[in-house]
Amino acid sequence: MTLLKSAFFGALLLSTSGAFAQEVTLRFQHFVSPASANPKHFMQPWADKVEADSRGRIKVELYPFMQLGGGAAEMYDLIADGAVDGGWVIPGYQPGRFPEAEALELPFMVTKSGEEASMAAWDFTQEHLMDDFADVHLLAAHMHGPGIVHKTGPGIQAVSDFEGLNLRGPSRAATLFLDKLGANPIGMPVPAFPEALSKGVLDGGVITYEMSPSLKLDELTDSHTDVAGEKSLYNLFFIWAMNKDSYAALPDDLKAVIDANSGAMASAWAGRAHDTGDKEGRQVLVDAGNELAEISAETTAQMVALGDEVIAEWIADVTAKGLDGAGLVASARAKVAANRLPAN
């Protein structure tokens, strides 16, 4: 009898431990170098933490450079359709599809802290964008650090210096502003930026310091210009998202692991990753001997006034399409103001 009981409980224990040791592999995809800031300081540490928190039961595999197929502009649909289990999305790569998110990307909307901007982005997303992203399971919403003008030749000193420049822009809001400044904006996902520079298609473009090393902007451009003050020339909105069926298929305890690594915490973490990368990327440009410039406060004020024109025109445009443009801008500004970090 004792032997029978021992065999029974042994089988029960084996069955229970086998269920507990269920392994799940999630394939996440992105479109940049694994050495760039977000993959290095957020995505990989996030994947490692999920694995550790699940005691090895969840493995997150990261695929850079769209290795699983598709283009950067297709990422949202690749996740929604289940071609990948999750990944990194720039909604602005599909102009007009997610218009409410553009409120955060308007000129001089957010501060130069990626962490602050990302905390504001998560709050704004919770209030305004959850319906827009209903096709995916949202893990984080975040923004990068300050957008910088990288170009061949000397840095920008006056608004007139933008006149006629062919500049890459990442989003509709950014290209609207570049157009207002007198440049010829060319909408372009980040993977195409270096080749366009090397072929002379572009005079430069707007992107962060942190992307400079992986895009070889220290070699392909000569100057890197920021605006004066605490607000960013432009910014870009991202989501870190998962396929809904992939999430739903997880047992409850593993859903809890994903949940614990999602939301405001993950959004702020992603923003900090960009801040860390900005410091590293800026130093690469300094070491290369490139020009790092800052537009004067007077010229920045002129640019802010032009940015206000873009904002007014954006409000009129989206309002005509049935959205509360003024309300979205007011809400974005309120979220930014409410998510300032204590001064060091």
Question: Would you give an account of this structure?
Answer:
This protein has helices at 2-20, 37-53, 75-81, 114-128, 172-180, 193-198, 212-215, 217-220, 244-248, 252-260, 264-287, 297-320, 325-338, and strands at 24-29, 58-63, 86-89, 136-143, 148-151, 166-169, 184-187, 204-207, 223-226, 237-243, 291-294. The protein is α/β, with parallel strands linked by helices. It is 46% helix and 16% strand. Helix 2 packs antiparallel against helix 11 (264-287). The protein folds into two domains: 24-143 and 236-278, Bacterial extracellular solute-binding protein, family 7 (D-Maltodextrin-Binding Protein, domain 2, 3-Layer(aba) Sandwich); 148-234 and 290-338, D-Maltodextrin-Binding Protein, domain 2, CATH 3.40.190.170. The strands form two sheets. Strands 7-6-8-5-9-11 form a six-stranded mixed β-sheet, with helices on one face. The protein is globular. The longest helix has 24 residues, at 264-287. It is built from 13 helices and eleven strands. Keywords: Periplasm, Signal.
